[in-house]
Design a protein that fits this description.
388 residues, alpha/beta, VC0802-like, Rossmann fold, 2 domains, 9-stranded mixed beta sheet, 6-stranded mixed beta sheet, elongated, binds adenosine-5'-triphosphate, binds magnesium ion
């Protein structure tokens, strides 16, 4: 069967020295996994990945996979053809067809690389011949060597590869190279962005959502599942743990001092997250907290929440403004879902005047007074698990 050919350029992985092999292997595995069930091969050649997928796979699917795979800095679709001038010219002319190329492209230049030095034409001559053929075939195109709209690249390797447009990728490191963490995923704007940032640094993640039914609706839960599905296109196979949180919330409401209730709830969430993380080999917790965004995210409040569990807590948004977070959430595709109007449990149980500078010792006393250990144990037992 004929194949689609893509070339991917790697970024930071290339700087990895002795560990490079580990990162490259993981990247290859991630691409292969995401392209299943279509037959595909992913090979490394001269600093690039060559990805070939059988033609029954829609080309848009491959674009979708490669543009959302961490570790790829840029990629391009290529035509692979015989290593003879006639085939190269025909392929280059066809790839620049008016119908196939973006309308904005009016000027071009050709760059050739001859990795196979036995090829009978030098790079300069290949470029000259290809440029001439494109100009003859497409009278709306002009050559501009200084500032072209596109660079038609011709590479002579085991075969000839021609690729005119590079598409930017996500950069970062292959997911799974930095271990696994548990993402606290609410239906808000921040936590999906936090998950994306950590995935970008190679952290695979499971997700946990605290659901306080009927105070939070089933739509709120569906919204979190939709967000997890969007994140799943960046991560390879998310498991979502849905924790019934109503009984914990009600006990805090009944026994906790009003101004302390948000922080007591945050503490309960951290305790549950710690248990679920331990049961699922997650080495850290990820949250969408940003410094001083709300009362529970001041230095003093974060210091209390942080002290609840010995697990490392990663807060990749800590120094970002809301506007910056929103910008990322738009580009990664979670914003429209995050702003759907279903309240999450935190907003419904929020006190009017939450503590901003909690005293840790006093908070520990309140925690033991509310005494949630059994409820926390039960909530973990009653979790619902969704594998994406
Ligand atoms: P987000 O936009 O991510 O909901 P937020 O600004 O609303 O964040 P908080 O409600 O204080 O802030 O929550 C802080 C962090 O705690 C969230 O980013 C998320 O990681 C976690 N979190 C909050 N509520 C839940 C929930 N119901 N389930 C899982 N995690 C939650
Ligand atoms: Mg929230």
């Amino acid at each position: 069967m004929e194949k689609h050919t893509f070339l991917a350029r790697l970024g930071e992985i290339s700087l990895k020295g002795q560990n490079r092999d580990f990162f490259e292997k993981k990247l290859k595995m991630n691409i292969k996994y995401k392209l299943r069930p279509y037959r595909n091969t992913v090979k490394k050649q001269k600093g690039r990945l060559f990805i070939e997928v059988e033609k029954d796979c829609p080309v848009e699917h491959i674009h979708n996979v490669l543009s959302k795979t961490f570790g790829i800095v840029a990629y391009s679709q290529a035509i692979r053809c015989e290593k003879d001038l006639e085939s190269i010219l025909a392929s280059a002319v066809s790839i620049m067809d008016k119908e196939k190329r973006p309308r904005s492209i009016k000027t071009f230049k050709v760059e050739s690389v001859r990795s196979d030095k036995s090829f009978y034409l030098k790079s300069y001559d290949i470029s000259k011949e290809v440029g001439h053929a494109i100009l003859m075939a497409h009278d709306d195109l002009k050559v501009d060597v200084h500032n072209p709209d596109c660079v038609v690249k011709v590479e002579i390797r085991d075969a000839a590869y021609i690729h005119p447009y590079e598409v930017p990728g996500q950069g970062g490191l292959p997911v799974g190279t930095a271990g696994k963490a548990l993402l606290m995923l609410s239906g808000g704007i921040d936590s999906p962005v936090a998950g994306w940032y950590m995935a970008k640094r190679g952290v695979h993640q499971e997700a946990i959502y605290f659901h306080a039914y009927p105070y939070t609706s089933d739509e709120a839960k569906e919204k979190v599942i939709s967000l997890a599905k969007i994140l799943n296109s960046y991560l390879e196979g998310i498991t979502l743990h849905i924790i019934p949180f109503t009984d914990v919330q009600l006990k805090i409401k009944e026994k906790g001092r009003e101004e302390e209730q948000t922080l007591l709830m945050r503490a309960a969430m951290m305790k549950i997250a710690e248990k679920i993380a331990a049961d699922n080999n997650c080495e850290a917790i990820v949250t969408g907290e940003a410094l001083s965004q709300v009362a529970s995210q001041t230095l003093q409040s974060l210091s209390f929440t942080d002290s609840i569990s010995p697990l490392l807590v990663l807060r990749p948004l800590i120094g970002l403004d809301k506007e910056e977070i929103i910008k990322v959430s738009r580009t990664i595709g979670t914003f429209e879902t995050s702003i759907l109007p279903y309240e999450d449990c935190c907003t419904l149980f929020s006190p009017k005047h939450p503590l901003v500078r909690p005293d840790k010792e006093r908070m520990y006393q309140s925690l033991s007074h509310v005494d949630m250990d059994d409820l926390i144990e039960q909530a973990c037992k009653d979790e619902e698990i969704i594998k994406l």
